[in-house]
Amino acid sequence: MVVPAVPERPAGGTTWQTLERLGGTVTGVHGRDWRPRYLQLAEELRAKIMSGELAPGTLMPSETELAESSGLSRTSVRNAIRQLREWGLVRAEQGRGTYVRAPRQRVRRRNTERYQWEKDRVLLDEDERLKTGATEHDTGLTVDDLKFHAEYTRVDANEEMAAALQVEPGTPLLRRVYWTSSRHENAPLTVSYSYLPYDLVAANPDLLDASKEPWPGGTQHQLYTLGIELDRIDDEIRARPPSPDEAELLDIDPGVSVLTVRKTSVDTTGRVVEVADVVMPGDRTELVYSHKLQRWKT
Amino acid sequence: MVVPAVPERPAGGTTWQTLERLGGTVTGVHGRDWRPRYLQLAEELRAKIMSGELAPGTLMPSETELAESSGLSRTSVRNAIRQLREWGLVRAEQGRGTYVRAPRQRVRRRNTERYQWEKDRVLLDEDERLKTGATEHDTGLTVDDLKFHAEYTRVDANEEMAAALQVEPGTPLLRRVYWTSSRHENAPLTVSYSYLPYDLVAANPDLLDASKEPWPGGTQHQLYTLGIELDRIDDEIRARPPSPDEAELLDIDPGVSVLTVRKTSVDTTGRVVEVADVVMPGDRTELVYSHKLQRWKT
């Protein structure tokens, strides 16, 4: 067997040493579990929560108890608990301890297929469009499992939104806030902030009326009533901590990150017709993008 | 003009009230700046940092000074500073105050194009493949601007990785850790953990030798030397806080989130040949996915 060469150590020891702790440099150590020990403990506890051995509402063992039973340091135990909080599996209640949470609805959002799927549905009869929507598609839930709220307002484009929509700052926009939750949970699965040029939308007064939501066939069908066909949707994805209000709204630990998608919809004339910012809790959301590659010519 | 209807308030006041604070319910208020005030302050300060009015290394004004000059509460000022930290624009130094950071290299990773671009390059001459790579493509930097490190080890598949690679737990894997940084910075732009079945790779001993990195043409060319052609790459994206070690390695505030991509490469026979976990700092990374939609038949 060829023994892998040890590469030259980079200047500035810190990066290298940190990488060693992260398990990067274990040349010569074959096999074994290469994960940090706090993570191994967190995964053991996760398995117990998943199996129901630690049921929802159970008070978690204290740090001292966990340190004794696992043989790990208090720091490792604390990191393991932090990890469980980030996964959304437990919640710390000030002065009362850490409790196992009820399992939460997960969302696996496959935007690669979703956008074309939504487009194909636009041309279906209303009966068909009423039956299901994109969130059902992502969650495996039915229309009856989901609560949906919409709120419309008219705002002036600030500089950022004006640039995104390719309009002048101050241009009137229709701002739509959507939040969708499972019927069994209070906190939404996603919150979405959508912006369209107001004058564009006003051509169909129904599109200014939030009580028409959820609109069968969604935004692509709403645009269709204006004679607009989409040609492209771009997703720009970022990660950040929640604002305090977002943590409360999504019912997440302030230490849970959020995933954000800025979705830009471009019509067949090359015009940006909608910009939407979608905010999703990082403890229960995955975004999946699938890339089919062209075969080499043989 | 049609006045948007106020939708029925959902049961459970908390969500609704939180949404009001988030600016969701401002029906009747037309125009104005709808962003929270702390964010407006953060954006003003960002503009000053971007323009150089607040230069790298400058000590930021204290909370008291900012509260006085802005007329905002201490809480809003604290949230604005937290926001600047999350954007990676300032760094808090224990007991010394908050300093403006030097601007950091940003990465805008367009995976929709990147994977096909990498595949097309595999069949080029080595001279051509040597000239540039995917990270150059994402950053606009040249080969000379980038430092690249690779570290290879042999490990046994744990349960998670065995499931991802569709092999038995305990199967030997080649684990490769890559980190790439700008020549002007110490902290990497990305850290990538790649796993391939060891026996698959061992057919070409050069692929077990980390000193052959950076390999011209990257992983897709490495697989090509084994007679493997990729058919599909799936990206699974998540957001989470960094582990303490990751925060140190990436030189980010513990309050900066990381974006992670689990990249699964499938060959033309339907076999998973590589699984890679890519970790990117959320203060300076965007992932872009572009979706071209099929036209309706008219």
UniProtKB/TrEMBL annotation, chains A, B:
Keyword set includes Transcription:
yes
Give the range the annotation lists for the signal sequence.
Answer: none
Q: Which residues form the HTH gntR-type domain?
A: 35-103
Report whether DNA-binding shows up as a keyword of the record: yes
List, alphabetically, the CDD domains matched.
Answer: WHTH_GntR
Q: Which UniProt keywords apply?
A: DNA-binding, Transcription, Transcription regulation
GO process annotations (BP): negative regulation of DNA-templated transcription
Q: Which Pfam families match?
A: GntR, UTRA
One example GO MF annotation: DNA-binding transcription factor activity
The identity of this protein, by name, is: Transcriptional regulator, GntR family
